[in-house]
Amino acid sequence: MKDRRTDILIVSSLFIIFGLLYFKIANDFRSLPGYSIYNNLLFGADHVEALNGWVAKHKGIHPLILLFVVPASWILSNICATYELAVVVLSALVGGFTVSAFYLLCRMIISRWQALPITIFWALSMNQIFLATIPDSYELVALSIFPTIALTIFCLKNKQLYLFAWIFVGLLSFSITITSVVQTVICLCVVLYSLKPIKEWTKPILGFSLGLISIAAILNLIQYKLFPGSQLFWSTSVYQHEMDYVYPLILSNPWQVIKELVKSFILFNFIGVEPVILRFKSEFQLKLIYFQGPVKYSILGIGALLFWLGLYFRGIFFTLLDHKSRLLVISLWLGILFNLIMHSFYSTDELYLYTPHFTFIVLLTCISAASFQAKWTVFAWWIAALLTGCNNLIIQQDLIKKYGSARPVNIISENSEWKYWKGKERPGKNWKKVNFDDKKWEIGKNGFGYGDDDDSTILKDMKGNYSTLYIRKEFNVTSESLYNNLLVDVDYDDGIVIYLNGKSVFRRNAGKKIKNFSRAIKSHEAGRPRRYRLSNDSLVVGKNILAVVGLNNSIKSSDFTLKVKLWKVESGEEATALSESK
Asked: Which residues have CB under 8 Å from 224's CB, separation 6+?
């Protein structure tokens, strides 16, 4: 009983300590200029999984995640001051819970005081620190596989199959991402190998498959009913979309792939290096990925790396010699091998983001009672945890300090006044150019529209009369070099075209030729502003004009919104990074 109370105390302490740590780091990220949960600053693919707006973009390869993420974030949003804060809290809670779960997993293999430094080391690894502080579902990937490994250990120890338990853990891994269930199948096969001859596998494999797919299908249908924008995992379009990203990288560029796999496997994933800022894509998406750079470490990082690699390879050697852990180790290595093979057929640019599938498994491959026979091993793991934590936390804070020093500068604020023209008639041939005479245009406060009760300038006569609205705003530039990083925040319903000094610089849901009777080519609901980077090729020193046309998708539409803000990031190192564009 005393031992159980001690473990409960340790588990609770780990959850609270690391939950608070991850929350602090996540909150620091919010200080970065441009950070927003609304898909503006992107810390990884599928960032909006934890947001209300993600439902419409939900992919069937994550068949049941909405049943957890959306309700959990909604509940927290009613407790926290803002929805953004709620998502940050959710990420930190999942991160803290993952650390506690990892400790319990280790306790099934080694003693309490051996498991503790291993858990601290993993909790302070760059993978865990980083992916536990972003509003995303990567932490859920690791958490969904933990029960599979735990059940594998339990079945091997007790020499029992527990088929219904396998269906349950399979459902957990399957619910987050379909590829994770492969690791569950691998572990199930290893357990079957230890219990039954291959000719007797048919019944349990069939029972597992039918049970898993049937329950998942029912839950997926329930999810689809609750969230109609989501997809069904058996839809062929889901897999056709994913196949667009699959190509044999390992065959076309084997050295590059192997190098990235090694880096993700035992280097950057555990001991962080100076992060590299990837260039912008078409939208304002700043990817902070630690893995896309040279293998460059500080003295502290080198010390952490030497301890980690030394303990890792020593642990593998003794664990492989331990016949009691051999079947478990085989299942772990087969799971790792599956992930490495799978990711060798995808772009390695984002490999770091997928390492929750196997990071903790890599660590488990060097853990066994045999690997801790020497008394100094526990002390060495504590040193590795200390060095790793110091290195990775310093890197994290340096990142926030470096990029958090930038400040936004409003050029055209969200409360500014614009000249506007209703699309009942043509606005004039040169309406989007600097020297156009707009004296006949009306003046209104930014935020034009009707039907939403959130507009500053209400267009009472728009419905049934016209589908376009033209707005213009003048601003001055004293030095062209000071405006290298133009960013625009737009909220629109349903289409928009932005011109800078007569040149089209941004377009959404709009045809090639815009006339006063034009309409948006598809609908888009306002309410969540989006941020994009504008080309500044048309800027001139002196007077400039930002001209915008908003389009409704129907002249009888129930609502319309057009709101535009123009701003920039201050010059400096962070501005240089922001100005890079492909």
From this structure: 230, 231, 232
Q: What is the pLDDT of residues 300-314, one digit of tens each?
A: 999 999 999 999 999
Query: By three-state DSSP, how is residue 500 classified?
Result: strand
* CB 388, CB 297: distance < 8 Å: no
* Under 8 Å between Cβ of 388 and 271: yes
Task: State pLDDT tens for residues 391-433.
Answer: 999 988 877 776 665 566 788 988 899 999 999 999 988 999 9
Tell how far CA 464 is from the center of its chain.
42
For residue 276, list its beta bridge partners: 289
Q: Where are the alpha helices (DSSP H) in 133-243?
A: 138-158, 163-176, 180-195, 202-226, 236-243
Domains and CATH numbers, the chain: 2-404 (no CATH), 408-579 (2.60.120.260)
Looking at the predicted structure, is the pLDDT value of residue 347 above 80?
no
Q: How far apart are CA 99 and CA 143, in angstroms?
A: 9
Query: Does residue 91 contact residue 74 with C-beta atoms inside 8 Å?
Result: no
Q: Give 375-439 as a DSSP string.
A: THHHHHHHHHHHHHHHHHHHHHHHHHHHHHT--EEEEE-TT-EEEEEETTS---TTTTSTT---T
CB 406 within 8 A of CB 41: no
Residues contacting residue 251 through CB under 8 Å, at least 6 positions apart: none
Whether 122 contacts 264, CB under 8 Å: no
Specify which residues 444 forms β-bridges with: 418
* Helix (H), strand (E) at residue 113: helix 112-123
Please, which pLDDT band fits residue 581 given cuts at 50, 70 and 90?
very low
Q: Quote the CA–CA distance of 311 and 319 in Å, as a whole number.
A: 12
